[in-house]
Amino acid sequence: MHRSAPRLTRILACAAVPVMLVVAGCSSDSDGKKDAASSASASPEATKSEPAVEAAKFAELPDPCSSVRAKTVKSLVPSAKSKKGTRGKTSDAAARGSCSWNGLADKGVKGSQYRWLDVGFTRFASDRTLGSGASRAGDDFTKQVGKAESADGAKNVKSAPVTGIGDQATRVTYDLAKSGEDFRYATVIARTGNVVVVVNYNGAGFAGSKTPTAETVVKGAAMAVKDAVAAVADANGGAQPSNSPKSSGKPSKSPASSAGSKTSD
Questions:
Q1: Quick one: pLDDT at residue 109?
Q2: Percent of the chain scored above 70 by pLDDT?
Q3: For residues 195 and 28, which has the higher predicted lDDT (pLDDT)?
Q4: What's the pLDDT at 31?
Q5: How many CB atoms lie within 10 A of CB 127?
Q6: Cβ–Cβ under 8 Å, residues 221 and 200
Q7: Predicted TM-score (pTM) of this structure
Q8: Positive or negative torsion for Cα 230, 236, 237, 240
Q9: Residue ranges of the domains in the chain?
């Protein structure tokens, strides 16, 4: 009776050893899999990076009142009240800017000729959420064309694409009666990279003088917008190919959402 007790103890102890080894083995294998899973989830390769946005081509806007050459202003608005132009108000000169010129040329018994010219710039920054500066400018370009085509009270509205100005350009012409006089308007909207340029040129004849022709105002607006587009490139160190944005190392400034162009009174 006394001999069987130690023997029973030894048998139970031996039987318990494999069970402990099996449990230990299962626990070790499970922990290993968990560690491997945690390591994989923390791996940089498992983290998806956000797609890069194309850098904005232009980081600066030109001085709007210097963007149209003096000889162009003299040709289009020969009797301008201020040859330096009137600067439009803006809350962010890095994103928007505008300037206007107007004047009445008295021809004596032949009547008088009134002219108005304005130029507006809007620069769009690249944004991961909103898109590249160029694509945002493209959207605003379309918006500005539609705005010109739907001018309040406009008659005989016509629009057509223009080649050789920036990345894309459209001209819009129309007639508008104001204060008993017939005005003829030409608006040219151009996009160069991430900048939208809008030029308005219009005129009227007073006291028997004839209203300027559509050809006259279209030609004038085209002259001014070419100057303005060139001024954008100059403000950023010179012209750059459309598919080769300027790399200045400067951070992109605040984006804009609407054009800063003025319309005539």
A1: 75
A2: 71
A3: 195
A4: 52
A5: 14
A6: yes
A7: 0.72
A8: negative
A9: 70-90+109-235
Token duo for residue 216 = 């006259």
Q: How open is the CA angle 116-119-123, to the nearest 5 degrees?
A: 165
One-character DSSP codes across the chain: -TTHHHHHHHHHHHHHHHHHHHHHHHHHHHHHHHHHHHHHHHSGGGSPPPPP-PPPS------GGGSS-HHHHHHHSTTBS-TT-EEPP-S-TTTEEEEEEEEEEE-GGG-EEEEEEEEEEEE---BTTTB-HHHHHHHHHHHHHHHHHT-TT-EEEEEEE-SSSSSEEEEEEEEEEETTEEEEEEEEEEEETTEEEEEEEEEEEETTPPPPPHHHHHHHHHHHHHHHHHHHHHHTTS---TTS-----PPP-----S-------
Task: Give, in order, the Cα–Cα distances in Å from 238 to each of 60, 144, 258.
Answer: 12, 26, 25
Provide the pLDDT for residue 46.
43
| Exposure string over 78-100, b if 16+ CB within 10 A, otherwise e | eebeeeebeebebeeebbbbbbb
Top-confidence residue, 113 or 14:
113
Number of other CB atoms surrounding residue 140 within 10 Å: 22
Residue owning tokens 């608006």:
187
Q: What is the pLDDT at residue 27?
A: 44
Chain position carrying tokens 């400034």: 253
pLDDT band, residue 238 (cuts 50/70/90): confident
